[in-house]
From TrEMBL, chain A:
UniProt-recorded name of the protein: Large ribosomal subunit protein mL44
UniProt GO MF annotations: double-stranded RNA binding; ribonuclease III activity; structural constituent of ribosome
Taxonomic source organism: Mortierella polycephala
SUPFAM superfamilies xref list: dsRNA-binding domain-like (SSF54768), RNase III domain-like (SSF69065)
InterPro entries xrefs: Ribosomal_mL44_DSRM_fung, Ribosomal_mL44_DSRM_metazoa, RNase_III_dom, RNase_III_sf
Keywords: Mitochondrion, Ribonucleoprotein, Ribosomal protein, RNA-binding
CDD domains per record: DSRM_MRPL3_like, RIBOc
TrEMBL record, chain B:
Single Gene Ontology BP annotation: mitochondrial translation
InterPro entries: Ribosomal_mL43, Ribosomal_mL43/mS25/NADH_DH, Thioredoxin-like_sf
Organism: Mortierella polycephala
Name this polypeptide is given: Large ribosomal subunit protein mL43
Chief localization: mitochondrion
Taxon lineage: Eukaryota, Fungi, Fungi incertae sedis, Mucoromycota, Mortierellomycotina
Length: 331, 135
């Protein structure tokens, strides 16, 4: 190991990473001097180490391509293993994923195309999942939920959890420019580019698995996305549309009606079936909540054990289409 | 005023598990006796460790005239440092495993037996829904 050599003047910082280990002995990837006066000896040693560094990392050049193949740094290799990007057949994609379009250099490929592709693929699989799992979810609400999963804010937060900040390559825009590029944008683009790269290299199913594992496994409470201004009115329209009995609110339980802190529990019934329940310190509030609860239960009904349309691509699985849900009622 | 934006929250281990340790830095001194075990560890075991854990970036840096130290850097931006002076390679391997498996969060005393972001399936107990009390 180069770093262990007795060299009081040269401080060698040798990084061992998977790729280096695989290739040969741990290569000395970075060498620098710390607080050393430029003496003849040190210059000599510096020259020697730099030369040996260059010699130890052979420049791989693809003659067919005008782009040079870059050697990923140990941090990038660690990142790619963390995110499972080591399964990519084309390993040059890893450097491409982490390079934002602002990092424009001669012979360096950026993630612009992967980013765009990834954004579309991400939305597609998120929509597919939500559409199948929640067949009755209103369309405008679905748009908002998809947005919550895929907007740059969310992606940049995720990128932080993936450790993208460590490896991202980008150039801050000059202060005189009108539109300022932020790290947030860059991080989001890298997350989308990962999806795009997996899609193009490994096929749609691997990309879908990645999205399911990293995006859709996250916890997101859907109830606040259902926005209803007047739940009582809405509920009665819904029952009319479904050709069921008019909803009736019934007081189920109460305490301390004449006290400072009363509690009422109200249930909403259509015929004999209880649709929802709510509580409140006034009858009105409890009824409002009960109607809202009933609507949430109706529109956010989950399908269990469903198969996705993209399952038709997977060999050995049978795709059973789920019934497309009803559209939202017009009040 | 619009409500604050809601983000999907990571539940690490559900769907995918992201190892939280991103980098391990090994500091050693070439001349001090306290680094003897560390140098032995670096020579013998470290390459095998790096091979087994490709998601951790391993950096070896000399730090002359100081005790040997292993520093773990984590995805949450924090780091943990363990001094491994006068330790045998086996003990150092234990410390390295500790750093590797740590989440990087601050140590804290858990006072409740269960910590969860998921709400209870049974719900909160309500006197209105329970069977009435009999005297």
């Amino acid at each position: 190991m180069a770093g262990l050599l007795r060299s009081p003047l040269v401080l060698a910082r040798s990084s061992i990473c998977a790729s280096a280990v695989r290739a040969c002995q741990p290569a000395l990837t970075r060498t620098f001097l710390i607080n050393v006066k430029p003496t003849k000896k040190s210059k000599l040693e510096q020259g020697e180490t730099i030369n040996s560094t260059i010699a130890s990392t052979p420049e791989l050049k693809d003659k067919d391509s005008k782009y040079r193949i870059e050697q990923p740094s140990p941090a990038v290799v660690a990142f790619s293993h963390r995110m499972g990007l080591n399964q990519l057949k084309d390993q040059t994609l890893v450097m491409r994923i982490i390079t934002h379009a602002s990092h424009e250099r001669v012979g360096v490929q950026t993630n612009e195309r992967l980013d765009y592709l990834g954004s579309k693929i991400l939305k597609m699989f998120v929509v597919e999942y939500l559409h199948t799992k929640y067949p009755k979810m209103p369309t405008d609400m679905q748009q908002e939920v998809v947005e919550a999963y895929t907007r740059p804010d969310t992606l940049s937060l995720m990128a932080k959890e993936f450790g993208v900040e460590d490896v991202a390559r980008w150039v801050r825009s000059k202060p005189e420019m009108g539109h300022q590029l932020t790290l947030k944008t860059v991080k989001a683009s890298i997350v989308r580019a990962m999806v795009g790269a997996l899609y193009i290299d490994q096929g749609p199913i691997k990309a879908r698995d990645f999205i399911h594992a990293h995006f859709l496994s996250r916890k997101l409470d859907l109830a606040p996305f259902l926005k209803v201004e007047e739940p009582k009115r809405y509920m009665s329209s819904l029952m009319k549309r479904l050709d069921r009995e008019h909803p009736v609110a019934r007081l189920e339980s109460e305490t301390g009606r004449n006290s400072k802190a009363p509690v009422f529990i109200v249930g909403v019934y259509s015929g004999t079936e209880k649709m929802g329940e709510g509580f409140g310190y006034s009858l009105k509030m409890a009824e409002f909540r009960a109607n809202k609860d009933a609507l949430t239960k109706y529109y956010l009904e989950e399908h269990k054990d469903f198969s996705l349309p993209s399952d038709a691509e997977v060999e050995g699985t049978v795709y059973r289409p789920t019934k497309v849900g009803d559209t939202q009622v017009i009040v | 005023m619009s409500p604050p934006m809601v983000h999907p929250i990571l539940k690490n281990g559900v769907g995918a598990f992201i190892p939280q340790c991103r980098r391990l830095v090994f500091h050693y001194c070439e001349r001090s006796g306290s680094s003897k075990g560390m140098i032995e560890y670096l020579k013998k075991d470290l390459i095998q460790f790096a091979k087994e854990h490709p998601h951790v970036e391993v950096i070896v840096t000399p730090r002359p005239s100081k005790h040997p130290v292993v520093r773990g850097l984590y995805l949450n931006g924090k780091d943990k440092v363990v001094c491994v002076r006068n330790m045998q390679p086996m003990d150092i391997a234990g410390k390295v495993a500790l750093l590797k498996e740590s989440s990087g969060n601050k140590m804290k005393n858990f006072k409740k037996p269960i910590i969860s972001t998921t709400e209870s399936v049974r719900g909160i107990w309500s006197p209105f829904h329970a069977a009435p009390h009999k005297i």
